[in-house]
Structure formats: C-alpha cells, structure tokens
Design goal:
- This is Flavodoxin domain-containing protein.
- One of its GO terms (molecular function) is FMN binding.
- One of its GO terms (biological process) is heme biosynthetic process.
- By secondary structure, this protein is of the alpha/beta class.
- The two termini are 13 Å apart.
- Strands 1, 2, 3, 4, 5 and 6 form a six-stranded mixed sheet that branches.
- Helix 1 links the parallel strand 1 and strand 2.
C-alpha cells in the first residue's frame, strides 16, 4: 500500500513533524502546494498547522484526492493548544471536517500534536492579527476561555516550542498496525 505525507506549514513545526514521520515510515513527503495528484496513493497523511480556524493547505489538498482510490485519510493537526483538552480537540475536528468532502470525512482518522510559535518570525499580517485577537480574548473571563485562548494568552509575544517528536511513535504504531 503506497503512502504519502503532505503537509501545510507556515512557520515550520508541521513541516518538522511531517518530515520526521516520513523518515520513520519510509515514505514520500511533499508540501501541499507541490502536490499535483494523489491517485497513486492509497494512504494519504496530511500534517497541517492550525491557522485561523482551519488546517493550512488541507482544503486545496483534499480537492486533489480521489475518494475512490484513497482508502485511508489521516489528518494530523499541529497547534499551540493542548491536544489532550477534549473541548479543543472537538473544535479542531469540527473545523477540519468543514474542509473535507463527506465521502472522505467518513474515513478520516485524526491525531493532534502541539507545535510552537515565534512572534519574531510571524509576518506583519499575522502579527497584527494575533495582536488584535490577543487584545480581544484577554478581556474574556478565565472561566470562559478555551484551551486555544489560554495558550495564546500564555505565549503571546514569545518564542515557544511544544514540539515533541516522540509523540510520533504512537502515531506510527497505529498507522502501521
């Protein structure tokens, strides 16, 4: 069974996970904007950074996936918030499923990893968006803040990395098992 890993990364953490996963699984890895077609692959693993309520590049990628030829679609999200927070995971999956056609969504597997952020590397546009969002959410009462909001408030303006490549070991076992 042929497998390919496709990734969407703006600042590098999803790319790090995707390349490491490809090395462990001994398969091809491509950025989403280099994918021409996916017909030769029965398993497609998409590793994508979470940005503005979506998974970077996934919507463009799934348009190229044959729902007949793709037998297994795996989505691995990379974000700042804790992937063990059930409410956070529910919100991520709900947003991701809006990007995936129904026939493919019915057989999509999800995994969630923590990424990182370096405000100095953010584009001007992203810095301004983050500043506006930060100003807005820091006014929320603590009891109303979700995991994403708390993570953003705690890390605002900093360089932080929660990348843990050891988390890939369990994913590899499940994918190859």
């Amino acid at each position: 069974m042929e497998t390919v890993i496709v990734y969407g990364s703006c600042y590098g953490t999803a790319k790090i996970y995707a390349e490491t996963l490809a090395e462990q699984m001994k398969c091809k890895v491509l950025p989403y904007d280099k994918v021409k077609e996916t017909d030769g692959y029965e398993t497609i693993i998409y590793v994508g950074g979470l940005y503005a309520g979506g998974v970077r590049g996934m919507a463009k990628t799934v348009k190229k996936i044959s729902t007949v030829k793709c037998k297994r679609f795996v989505v691995i999200t990379v974000g700042l918030a804790d992937p063990d927070d059930e409410k956070n995971v529910k919100n991520i999956r709900k947003a991701a499923l809006r990007q995936i056609p129904k026939p493919l969504a019915d057989r999509t597997e999800f995994y969630h990893l923590r990424g990182g952020i370096d405000y100095e590397k953010l584009s001007f546009k992203h810095r301004m968006m983050m500043k506006m969002l930060y100003e807005q959410v820091k006014k929320q009462p603590v009891g109303e803040q979700d995991a994403d909001t708390r993570a953003m408030i705690e890390t605002y303006g900093q360089k932080v990395s929660f990348v843990d490549l050891a988390c890939l070991d369990n994913i590899v076992k499940k994918l190859e098992g």
